Amino acid sequence: MPGSFSTALSALSAMGTAVDVVGNNLANLNTPGFKASTVSFRDLVTQSMGSGLGETQVGFGTALPLTFRQFNQGSVQTSSGLLDAAIQGDGFFIIKDDAGKTIYTRAGNFLTDKNGNLLTNTGLHVQGWSAINPLTNEVDTVGAVGNIIVPVGTLKAPTVTTNFTVDMNLDSTAAADATSQYSTPMMVYDSLGTSHVLTLHFQKTAANQWTYNVTIPGEEVTGGTAGTPFDIVGASGTLTFGSNGKLTDPAWGAPIAFTIPGLADGASDMNLAWDPYTAAGVARITQYGQPSASSASSQNGSAAAQLIRVGLANGGGVLAQYSNGDQVVVAQLALASIRNPDSLLAAGDNNFALSARTAIPAIGTPGTGGRGTIAGGSIEASTVDIAQEFTHLIVYERGYQANSRVITTQDQLSQETINLIH
To answer: What does the angle CA 309 – CA 142 – CA 312 come to, to the nearest 5 degrees?
Structure first.
C-alpha cells in the first residue's frame, strides 16, 4: 500500500507542473510573438506482482511531464509602429546580444538607437544586410549578415539629371508657320541639387516635320542674359513623322544628347539625353489631329533632401523616406529557417537559443528557401488561446484534487491498519 503514496505524489507534482505551464501561457497572453507551450504526460515503469508473469501490474505513477513549444502561426495584427514587423509563415528574426551571441525571435517590435542601429525592444541588434551594391544601387544580400544600421538625421545628396522623357502630341492640322509654335517645360537638377526649368520649343515647318530647340533661362548660365532664354548648343533639330503620325526621325536607339555648360551656380556641366522613345521602341511623341499638348514627363534627378522617417516595408526592406518624396530601401532584414523549432530553448525576452538537438539555421531573405514573408507595420500576436488554457486548467485542477483524494484514502487505510494492533 505505501506505493500508492508515491504514485499519488508523482501525480501531484506532474499536475503542479502542468498548472505552471498554463500559468506561464496565460501570463504571456499579450506578449508579441509568444508561442504557447503544451505538456505531455508519461507513466513510470510498472511493477509486476504475484507470480511475476505479469498477470498483475501496478504502475509507479507519472513522471514530470515534457513541455513542448508549439510554433504555429499567430495572428498578424496591424500596429502603429513604423519599425514593427511580423513573420507570416516559418522563420525567425536573427538578433545578436552585446557579447555577439546569435539568438532568434518571432517578436518584431523594433526600434533604433541614436546611432541608427536597428534593435529589439530589449536592446539586441537585429541582423540583416545594409551594404549598397554600387552597380545596382540596391541592398546587397549576398554576403554575411550583420548589424542593420539605418540613416538617422542624414541629408540625402542630390542626384544630377542625366536623362529625361516627354510624352506629347503635336497637332498635325497646324499650319506650317509661327502659329504652330508649342512649348513645354522640363525641370532638371544639376550636381548641386539646384533645379533648372528647360523649355522645349516646337514649330511645324512642313507636312510631317517639326523643328525643336531647348532653352534655359539666361541668368542661369554664364553666357546668358537675364530675362532672355538661352539657346542650348546642340539641343536643336528636326522631328519627322510618318503618314501614320508616328515618329520616324530621330530613330529608336539614338537619344538627343546635349550639354549645358557654365552653370551660374558653379555646378558641373550637365550632360543630358532626351529619349523620344520607350525602352520597347514605342515613340513618346506623336503627330495626330489633336491640339499640341504634353501628357507626361519624367527625369532621373532630384534635389538634396532631409530624412523624414524610416520604416519597415512588406518583405523586410528598411525604407527611408526623404522630404522630396523619394523612398529608398537602405537595408534588408534576414530570416532564419529552422527545421525543428520545437527543439529551441527559451532565452527570455521573447527570444530563443539553439539547443544541441537544433538543426543548423538556414539564413536568407524572406520568401525564399521555405522562409516566410515579412509584413511591415504589423506584429504577430501570442498564440495563447485563453479558452483552451482555462479548459486545461480545470482538467489539471480536477486531476490534482483526485490524486489528493488518493493520498487521503491511503492515509485512512493506514490508520485502520494501525488500529488493528490495538
So the answer is: 20
Spatial contact of 262 and 222, defined as CB atoms under 8 Å apart: yes
Nearest to 106 by CA among 85, 123, 124: 85
- Please state whether beta strands 327-333 and 317-322 pair in parallel, antiparallel, or not at all (unpaired): antiparallel
Residue 15 parent element (H or E): helix 3-27
In this structure, the dihedral spanned by the alpha carbons of residues 217, 220, 222 and 228, taken in order and rounded to 10 degrees, is 20
Q: Kindly report, residue by residue over 368-392, the tens digit of the pLDDT.
A: 998 999 999 999 999 999 999 999 9
Nearest to 162 by CA among 275, 65, 59, 83: 275
β-pair partners for 296: 167
pLDDT at 42: 86
Find all residues with CB under 8 Å of 27, minimum gap 6, and list them.
none
Q: Global pTM?
A: 0.72
Q: Nearest CA to 270 among 185, 164, 358?
A: 164
Count of Cβ atoms closer than 10 Å to residue 400 Cβ: 17
* CA angle 270–272–275, rounded 5-degree value: 170
Q: List the domains of the chain with CATH numbers.
A: 3-70+382-421 (no CATH), 76-153+310-335+360-380 (no CATH), 163-299 (2.60.98.20)
Contacts of 376 (CB under 8 A, 6+ apart): 84, 85, 311, 312, 313, 314, 315, 316
- 3-class secondary-structure state, position 166: strand
**Mind listing the pLDDT tens digit for each residue in 287-327?**
999 999 999 999 999 999 998 889 999 999 999 998 888 88
Q: And the C-alpha cell for 67?
A: 513541455
Number of H helices, E strands in the chain: 2, 34
